[in-house]
């Protein structure tokens, strides 16, 4: 996440754009679709798919979760992470 683009390094901005573009190419039911990656006067932004039903912070508000409730959240997340890792592992930028 870029909190203040004006103070972010060029490397941080490049990584933000690369990661956003990588995610934008993914099609998975448990990954929010990125429709557009842009820049407005030096401030990067994303246009995201609207997902109804609240956010994860709201869902985790009632911690501790029961085992069935935790499994309900874990299974889709695990599948999305597995998909994302496979989709980006060969295109990830090399560390310098």
Q: Supply the helix-strand structural class.
A: alpha+beta
Topology as a string of helices (H) and strands (E): HEEHH
Outline type: globular
Per DSSP, the total helix count is: 3
End-to-end Cα distance, whole Å, is 21 Å
CATH class: Alpha Beta
How many β-strand runs?
A: 2
Q: How many separate structural domains?
A: 1
Walkthrough of the structure:
- There is one protein chain.
- The chain is α+β, with helices and mostly antiparallel strands.
- The protein has a single domain (5-88), classed as Phosphorylase Kinase, domain 1 (2-Layer Sandwich), CATH 3.30.200.
- The chain has three helices and two strands, in the order αββαα.
- The protein has a two-stranded antiparallel ribbon.
- A hairpin with a 2-residue loop joins strand 1 (34-40) and strand 2 (43-48).
- The longest helix is centred in the C-terminal third of the chain and has 22 residues, at 67-88.
- It is globular and about 45 Å long.
- The mean pLDDT is 81.
Key structural traits:
3 helices; two-stranded antiparallel ribbon; alpha+beta; 2 strands; Phosphorylase Kinase, domain 1; 96 residues
Write the layout of secondary structure elements.
Layout: H1 10-24, E1 34-40, E2 43-48, H2 56-59, H3 67-88
Antiparallel strand pairs: 1-2
């Amino acid at each position: 996440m870029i909190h203040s683009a004006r103070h972010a390094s060029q490397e941080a901005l490049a990584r933000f754009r690369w990661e956003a573009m990588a995610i934008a190419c993914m099609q998975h039911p448990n990954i929010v679709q990125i429709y557009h990656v842009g820049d407005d006067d030096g401030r990067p932004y994303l246009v995201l798919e609207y997902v109804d039903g609240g956010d994860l912070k709201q869902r985790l508000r009632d911690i501790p979760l029961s085992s069935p409730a935790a499994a309900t959240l874990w299974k889709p997340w695990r599948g999305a992470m597995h998909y994302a890792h496979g989709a980006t592992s060969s295109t990830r930028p090399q560390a310098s």
